[in-house]
Write a structure and sequence with these properties.
- It is a single chain.
- By secondary structure, this protein is mainly beta.
- It has two domains: 111 residues, no CATH class; 194 residues, Jelly Rolls, CATH 2.60.120.
- The strands form four sheets. Strands 8, 10, 11, 13, 18, 19, 20 and 22 form an eight-stranded antiparallel sheet that branches.
- Strand 3 and strand 4 form a beta hairpin.
- The N terminus is likely disordered.
Length: 375
């Protein structure tokens, strides 16, 4: 009888143990699975639900590779071609775009398309690496493009002089920015990986008119976002521009001691949606967003709406390229740094913009990096 009781208690303990562990969250869905056994290592990235105000679909999460442990940089390929990502089930592969990696300096910029980022439960994704024969992820445009977040274009500005490396979100390579008068030293540390600094004299980018009018022409509603850091905030200084004062379009610029957002057709582009430069400091980064639903335009700075006003719904895209760092007539050169310029053909929700700002501004508060796991 005593021996039988001992056996019963031992069996009960064996059953209760895993149940107790499960309640504590020790087990995850698919914890025993491995995305691809060719990859020797993986690490969890846990997105904090408290940093997200509502559930976001196909959200491009920025992972600053600097946050990963030193062992990552001694295991991953030097060019990062073996970086892959999965959902928490370890079977659903996620689209990734590796913009830069420097294994010697332990730095880099990675973006991962996450199907759903919850505002109520932490979202866990995994990064896989450690496969010496892997080739680069084949469709990085799926992070930001039509198969992902749906941006018309994203310019990471990772290299000043090489325009081919500025392009993202499209597989066909259209609207690659043409670099004008930049030098190799104009590639500098940015807010999201590398950025580009202009001298306010003659340095600028242009997406040719034929390409811009075909692929960068949001109809009615749109969202234009960028990180900017001004060395000076001179009047009539342009950071992003596809318009003039009579035919309209979209623009972010400084005029009359105000950061201004321009939208719409004739006349309405100059509609006084502003943020005073007295509230901005030279040498500091600002996440600036101009967006419109076709009737109301809004200006958002560092995740907070600062002004709104009427915005036209008609645009004249047939004439003007998209310029960065200057006005369309060859004036208004910007003296400062730009990073991570994104154009969407819808008015993105406030919760989406807030999450992007937090993710890019303070990545370590947006997610937590786990410990390295070995297959």
């Amino acid at each position: 009888m005593i021996r039988a009781l001992a056996i019963f208690l031992a069996c009960a303990g064996a059953i209760a143990g895993p149940v107790l562990q499960h309640r504590r969250g020790a087990f995850r869905a698919g914890a025993g699975a491995w995305l691809d056994t060719n990859y020797s290592k993986r690490i969890a990235v846990t997105i904090d639900a408290t940093q997200v105000s509502s559930t976001l679909t196909d959200f491009p999460v920025f992972v600053r590779l600097d946050d990963l442990p030193a062992s990552f940089f001694t295991t991953v390929q030097a060019d990062g071609d073996d970086i892959r990502a999965s959902s928490d089930d370890h079977t659903t592969e996620l689209a990734v775009e590796l913009v830069t990696i420097d294994t010697g300096g332990s730095t880099g910029e990675l973006h991962v398309s996450v199907p759903s980022v919850s505002s109520s439960v932490d979202t866990v994704i995994y990064l896989y690496y450690g496969y010496g024969s892997a080739t680069a992820y084949a469709t990085p445009e799926n992070v930001f493009g039509a198969s992902g977040a749906g941006y018309m274009h994203v310019y990471h500005l990772s290299t000043a002089a090489n325009a081919e490396q500025l392009n993202s979100s499209r597989s066909d390579g259209n609207t690659t920015l043409d670099a004008n008068n930049f030098e190799s030293g104009d590639s500098v540390a940015g807010k999201v990986g590398q950025a580009v600094i202009a001298d306010g004299s003659n340095e600028y980018y242009a997406a040719p008119q034929s390409e811009a009018s075909s692929y960068l022409r949001p109809d009615g509603s749109f969202t234009l976002s960028m990180w900017l850091k001004g060395d000076t905030f001179g009047s009539d200084t342009y950071y992003g521009n596809q318009m003039n004062s009579t035919t309209g379009g979209i623009s972010l610029w400084i005029w009359s001691s105000n950061l201004r957002a321009g939208y719409g057709g004739s006349g309405s582009a100059w509609n006084g949606i502003t943020y005073p430069t007295s509230s901005m400091s030279t040498g500091s980064w600002y996440h600036v967003v101009a967006k419109s639903n076709g009737s109301t335009g809004r200006l958002i700075v560092n995740g907070v709406e600062v002004d709104s006003g009427s915005a036209g719904s008609s645009h004249s895209w047939a004439t003007y390229p998209l310029y960065l760092f200057r006005r369309e007539d060859g004036s208004g050169y910007a003296d400062g740094t730009l990073d991570e310029i994104r154009l969407h053909d819808t008015e993105l929700a406030a919760d989406w913009i807030s999450a992007e700002y937090t993710n890019q501004n303070t990545p370590a508060s947006f997610y937590t990096i786990g410990t390295e796991e070995t297959q």
